[in-house]
Amino acid sequence: MIAIRDLSLSIHGTPILRGVSLDIAPGEILGLVGESGSGKSMTALALMGLLPQGARTTGTALLDETDLLTLPEAALCKLRGNDIGMIFQEPMTALNPLQTIGAQVAETLVIHGRATRAEAQRIARDRLDRVGLSAIPLDRYPHELSGGQRQRVCIAAAIALNPRLLIADEPTTALDVTTQAQILDLLKSLVAEDGLSLLLITHDLAVVADMADRIAVMQTGAIVESGSTAQVLAQRRHPYTAALFAASAHTPSRRVHRADEPLMVVEDLHRIYPGARTLLRRGPPVAAVRGVGFTLHRGESLGLVGESGCGKSTLTRALLGLDPVQGGDIRIFGRSILPKMPDSTRAGIQVVFQDPYGSFDPRWRVDQIISEPFHLLPDAPRGADRRARVAEALRAVHLAPEDMDKYPHEFSGGQRQRIAIARALITQPRILVLDEAVSALDVSVRARILDLLAELQGAFGLSYLFISHDLTVVRAITDRVLVMQAGEIVEQGPTADVFDRPSHPYTQHLLKAAPRLPDMTERLA
To answer: Is the dihedral of CA 90, 95, 98, 102 positive or negative?
Structure first.
């Protein structure tokens, strides 16, 4: 149905795509994999006619006998939604926060003249029911839904006009394993029932191994290997393909120096949010964290896993002194941090967030970003000593001291995450809280960051609280793991024991939902 031949793309003279050739047959799932920056998303945007200004293309992209690359904007507007639909990675930015979900699904039908507003609302209800949102009213807004529900709304909008090709650009990267499994099952069922084609763009090889009929591997704007899924999984002819598979199963070399000294002790912790009190709605209080207790020891890596909404983020905010609690105690370095964490304690526990770019001030140079936590120290270094400390932190994460004079936008995603780690290290903390710190990174960058974390732990004796929905990563980097469900810790123990012999039904459910490569079946139970 889609035939791409020798597609090349440059933006303001910079080559992005180089001679890309792909075929997508009716009813087929094609997985397009590669590292960030390899050109996957640009290939999809070229098909949709959504390239940025300054883009120049050569080659052809035929939908039946029509070359998509030569169509004027008016013709592309008719094609988008009708023939080709697209699902983006982050649904919260793809959806309009000021419109209800019903209006956004119906909008496509009205704009294309396929239904009146009343009919469009009825069809919107049908599409939302079809993607598993029958219990969600049409008058809900995106912020009132979970991440998985928002992604389902995006899928409902994309299939509203029954397109022939659906492009899914990293549709499950930010989702937990069970929600991811539900979204992937939904996409597979749409392909089977409607006969549409699916271009699945992802850096998660385990996802395409289970989903795709064929796989194309992209590196620096070119297809380096393609074939049936079974063929690519078995042969891995190109060195880059082999390197991607090796990175997916990478386990960092760790020197465990766990001591019996408890650095963080949490006892019977409760966090309760008040119920909704608006003119239209009344709701009961919500217990987000219920009776949680655990201990983090010096030099230990402790994993925290669970679905979105289970209470991981709420618990993390409480541990960082950012959220009040309604019961229990948190002792860090032998001292209770309730009701307010003192700066001396805050300097000893630092956090690395999922999206470093979102936690940086884009107008600040790296020097300012990394040295920002110095305000927590009673005697903060100044002048040349301050720059020397920043240079030392940059060297610790394998960046150059000269990088301190650059801005965040001058770095790749993996480099920005290294800067975030350097900022966390600047106060010489004893505990690092890593909140989904590698979930947005492609497999090769993720492997390098995990190696760096293992190296830093060995060098500085750090303790890690590693929060992630990626069970493969948790298996690779942690000594013990906590499994959280509905605000409670339902299972905990040594990581290998919990993963190999899970006792709680919820843990078994999580492990079963996790996608895996065929040669990873021994690593995840």
So the answer is: negative
